[in-house]
Amino acid sequence: MSAVVTPIRSLTVVQLIPSMHSGGAERSALEIARALVQAGHRSVVISAGGRMVERLEAEGSEHITLDIGKKSLSTLGRLVALRRALRRIKPDIVHARSRLPAWMGWWAIKGMQPQPHFVTTVHGLNSPGRYSSILLRGERIVAVSQTLRDYVLSHYRWLEPSRVRVIPRGIDPDAFPYGHRPDDVWTRSFFAEFPNLAGAPLLTLPGRGTRLKGHHDAIHLVADLKRRGIDVRLLLLGAVEPGREAYAEELRELIRSLGLEQQIEMTPPRDDVRDIYAISALILQLSNKPESFGRTVVEALSLCRPVLGYAHGGVGELLAELYPAGRVAPGDRERLVERAAELLRVAPAISMLHNYRLGDMQQATLALYDEVMAG
To answer: What whole-number distance in Å separates Cα of residue 332 and Cα of residue 93?
Structure first.
């Protein structure tokens, strides 16, 4: 359920992000944009564009297409355009969600009268240093998990703890209802599109086409289960992305080398994630580096689907709290296959979630904006 708050006065909030194609930071930008509009505020997102822009605009926000996230000297040439856009918009708050857009926004608001308030969100466990430190220059800094708050405070000793607020990402329980099952029309259509995924328990690993997400581990897990006589299917959901074709081909080559072409499928990001999770026997979260949160863990458990993941970072934090049976030490391939076999045989019961709700995240963020405006 989305937050609807009666505003003390109407605000104009600009969110800065590299793109609106896919990913947790992008979804958070979309969700906060929706909450701003519903609360009577003006919401603007500046990014290079992407598949989420259509929904963003349909929900009442404005989008300005400007590539402020590409790590190239050419990006600095867009600083004038960004400053011009911000002066035209006259925002009360500029909220940066990524490092390079944060630097661009920081420079762009210098000299503006009145100068917008600067808020940042730290979405990832970035390498500490000057480049990453821009995300800690906000008047208020949102950390998406306690793990992430502890991380930035341990690496930036000058940072005032009172400025760093934990606001976990949230999911809409109406969008991921407990015990949901897709209808027959969707199910037939899905397996007509991916006939290889029928006939055995489905494992789903959602994640962008990057090595960070653990696609190789998931593929080897299928091979290890096969050697134990356990037949499964695997969907690498969202692994096929523009600009990452070489990585996708690397995964296909690994699949071919292990003789798993009939058991594994790869797709671009899709909008029917809920139904895919609901038909899955296991949702995998195998990022090989600690992640800051792990929204897929909450989404899957909200649907009453078991999760198997590496117990580090925000994912480990969530699994320890919500589903301890799904934890495995990072990189422990033998234990991973043993735990997968156990969960496929008998998965422990999953209770209905009563926290990590989207409305809580939206309300907490809008309250943070009010706090910033109050000085």
So the answer is: 45
DSSP state of 304: T
H, E, C per residue of 267-301 = ECCCCCHHHHHHCCCEEEECCCCCCCCCHHHHHHH
Domains 12-170+357-373 and 184-345 alike in fold = yes
Is 3.40.50.2000 the CATH classification of the domain at 184-345?
Answer: yes
| Whether the Cβ atoms of residue 260 and residue 233 lie closer than 8 Å to each other | no
For 173-225, how does the pLDDT look when each residue is reduced to its tens digit (9 = 90+)?
Answer: 899 999 999 999 999 999 999 999 999 999 999 998 999 899 999 999 999 99
Structure confidence at residue 292 (pLDDT): 85
Alpha-carbon gap, residue 261 to 196, rounded angstroms: 9
**CATH domain 12-170+357-373 topology:** Rossmann fold (3.40.50)
pLDDT, residue 8, reads 53
**Residues constituting the chain:** 375
Looking at residue 40, its pLDDT comes to 97
Q: Can you tell me the distance from the alpha carbon of 67 to that of 19, in angstroms, rounded to the nearest whole number?
A: 8
CA 355/CA 322 separation, integer angstroms: 10
**What pLDDT is recorded for position 59?**
98
DSSP E strands in 217-362: the ranges are 233-237, 264-267, 282-285, 307-310, 327-328
- Among 31, 11, 12, 10, residue whose Cα is nearest residue 20: 31
Residues of the chain with pLDDT under 70: 1-8
From residue 54, how far is each of 27, 68, 216, 268 by CA, in Å? 13, 19, 33, 17
pLDDT at residue 77 in the model? 84
